[in-house]
What does this fold into?
Amino acid sequence: MFSILEINRTLVKNVGMRTSKKTVSQEAMEVEWLEIQAAQGDPAMFRPLYNRYFEPIFRFIYRRTADEVLSADLCSQVFLKALQRVGAYTFKGVPFSAWLFRIASNEVSQYYRQNKKNRIVSIEESNFTDVMEELQESDNEQLRQTLLLVMDQLKESDLQLIEMRFFERLPFKEIANILGITESNAKVKTYRILERMKKQIQKVIGSRH
It folds into this structure.
């Protein structure tokens, strides 16, 4: 399924979010694990987890739909399923959000499969800078448009890795947990994708001269 890539210059203002790269401390995860265990014993205790993660999960979905109503519906499904399944959740050394992101990713994929629609990727302008820096390319309008073309040709699984690393700014450990692969595999896959993207960008630009 092809993706429609667009620069979403209003995403930060409308949805209120630029994410930052940060690692959740072990102590914070241990405290959160106590909250999860409380929710496993009493569904009403799920509320703190819902309040903490509703916005990041909504943002994650919105980037892939660019539709606030649809995002809200899918987000509700994510937390309903999370509440229903929290009893089976086990701590794996990553934030609870990684588990929620996995459910959200599955919900988005299922929506597009069932509705046979093209997937959307909304890109904040700040994301371009991050990707260009990683690709060691100068950030300009021509390269931005070329990057859109190159990303539009990525396989779904490759695009998902780029999204999580550069749009959601997730650590490789969390990406690995979401995708069910090892952390080293997540790193290797990501940098191989970036290398292919760099070559493709140079090829496209070269063909224009």
